[in-house]
Description:
By secondary structure, the protein is an alpha+beta fold. The protein has helices spanning 3-26, 67-89, 94-106, 151-161, 169-178, 192-204, 291-297, 299-309, 314-328, and strands at residues 34-35, 50-58, 127-133, 139-145, 166-168, 238-243, 249-255, 276-278, 284-289, 333-338, 344-348, 352-359, 364-369. The strands form 2 sheets. Strands 1-13-12-2-6-7-3-4-5 form a 9-stranded mixed β-sheet. The protein has a 4-stranded antiparallel β-sheet with strand order 8-9-10-11.
Amino acid sequence: xxxVKRTRLLGAGLGLWMASGMMAMAQGSLAPGVTSGAPLxxxxxxxxxxxxxxxxxxxIERASMKPDTEAAYKAGMxxxxxxxSRVLDGGGHAMDAIEAALKVLxxxxxxxxxxxxxxxxxxxxxxxxxxxxxxxxxxxxxxxVTTTRHPISLARAVMERSPHVMLIGHGADDFAKSVGLEQVxxxxxxxxxxxxxxxKQMKKEGKPVPPRPVGAPPEPGTPVVEIETPEAHKYGxxxxxxxxxxxxxxxxxxxxGTQAKxxxxxxxxxxxxxxxxxxxxxxxxxxxxxxxxxIRLTVARTICALVQYKGMPLQAAVDDVVQRQLGAIHGDGGxxxxxxxxxxxxxxxxxxxxxxxLVEGGAVQMGIYRDEP
Length: 373
C-alpha cells in the first residue's frame, strides 16, 4: 500500500475512533468493562496479574480537551491495555504483555511514539525505547532509531539477542535488520498533525523550517485541525509496568522524544534507572516528563530504592520522588509503578497524565486530569 493511501486510511481510522468514543461517552462509559468512577484499585490480589500504563504527561486540561478527543485517547489506551491483558490471560510473561501493548501505541497516531512521534528540528522522527525484566534484571534500550517500525521490539532484541544493554542511531537500526525486525522509511512515522506542530514551533522560535520529509504525503490545502493544545503532549512518552501470574514484574517505555529537539538529544526513556527500571526486589517504574531532570535524579531507580531499602509503600515512594524531589529541582512529569506483591501507583506534578490500570478479573480504570484518582 502506498504511503498516501495508508495515511488516508489512518486519518479515517482516527475519525472512527473519535466517533465511537463520542457515542460511548454519550452512553456514560468508554467501553464494556471500563470505569473511571469506582474507587481506585491500589493492590492486586496474590496470583492475579496487574497492569499500569501511561500515555504521557503535560498541560492536559478539560478546558482544552474536546470530548471526542478525550474519547479517542481513552480508546487508544483501552486497546493497548487489553492487548496486554490477552497476553497475560494466555499465561504470557510480563515482558510479552508490555511489548504487545506498546506496539499497539506505536501504531496509534495520537501518541508520541512510533507512528505518532513528534519531529526533531531537522525534520526526522528519532525514536527511543527501553524494556527491563525484573526477574533477571536484564535490560535493553535503543535511542535515535529512525527506520525500525517498533522500537520496543528492538529494545527487547537488544536485551535477548545481543550482549549489550543500549544501542543508538544507525547501529541500532542495523542491528534490527540483522535480527529480522521490520524496517520502514522514516516517512512512515509522519503525521500531518505532528509536522504542523514542528512548523509552528520553528517559526515561533525564528528558526528555519526543515524541508518536508521525502515520502511524506502531499501538504493538504488546509491546515490539519489541532485536536489538543501544543503543550498537551510536551512529555509524550508512553509506558507500561506489569506483574504476571508468576509474580514477576517488568517495565517498558517508548517515545518520540521532544518536539524540535536538536543534536540528537536523548531523554530519560532509554536510560535504565532514569525513565525505565524493574527489579523483583523492589518495583517496576516507567516515567514520562522532562527527561533531563529524570536522568539527574535517576527517578525510576530512586523510587525502587525507597521501596527496597527504606520499606516505603509504593505510593509513598512515588509521591516522595515526583512531588518532593523532582519538584525541588523544578522537574516535571510523572511515573507509573508496580511491585511484586501487587501494589500499584502513579503520580505526576503536571496538570494531567494519560493513565490506566487493570487487575485480572476487574475493569479498566482510567484517568487524564489532576482532579481524578
